[in-house]
Amino acid sequence: xxxxxxxxxxxxxxxxxxxxxxxxxxxxxxxxxxxxxxxxxxxxxxxxxxxxxxxxxxxxxxxxxxxxxxxxxxxxxxxxxxxxxxxxxxxxxxxxxxxxxxxxxxxxxxxxxxxxxxxxxxxxxxxxxxxxxxxxxxxxxxxxxxxxxxxxxxxxxxxxxxxxxxxxxxxxxxxxxxxxxxxxxxxxxxxxxxxxxxxxxxxxxxxxxxxxxxxxxxxxxxxxxxxxxxxxxxxxxxxxxxxxxxxxxxxxxxxxxxxxxxxxxxxxxxxxxxx
Length: 275
Known about the structure:
Strand order of the largest sheet: 1-2
Shape: globular
Number of domains: 1
């Protein structure tokens, strides 16, 4: 009876879903993304990208065609349709620094017009892994991560944790751009079973764990006021319970949520002041 009474009055607190350092970093990284990559666009235009035919329509008859089709939609949902890019098999893509090719001016936007580029050498090379053709969520996440890698370098402030956390911050940035479902679902792949069923080359190498990615997805959904059911139905079954608990924990963390929501208000005030 005593235990029941304690639970009723909230005196027994549930264990945090992630360790405190991870939770704080995810909040800080989301705040960094909002401050540096158009909070207005995030709230007004960023979509929760779904792994469905409706979000990725089209039929092609080749691996290259499929990769180009998927990337075109990824670039659109990321608000980077104006970037000059070239999708190429990773086995044919030379490793080189292409940051000088990043477009100037507006960072993201659905109506931003890009410069007309005819020379392929002036396009950002976007490598794809042909082995991922049967793992579309992994391919979508990989493409989003590449775009986030370039986008992150346009930040006006260093990311939380610095360069040592660059793989994680760029995955978080891709989740911020709407691709959280793909990152959560493709962060871990069971390697057991028959050898012929597992293709290690098709697996996306994740920086965030599946639970960290799912928590970041919950942050995205809470800020965008997306119902749990809209997200959960597309998550792997074993992540659904964790996701719902993450949403509840984020709402309970009033200071953390207020800080993130305050960034939107700051941007509104700055816009009104002409800053």
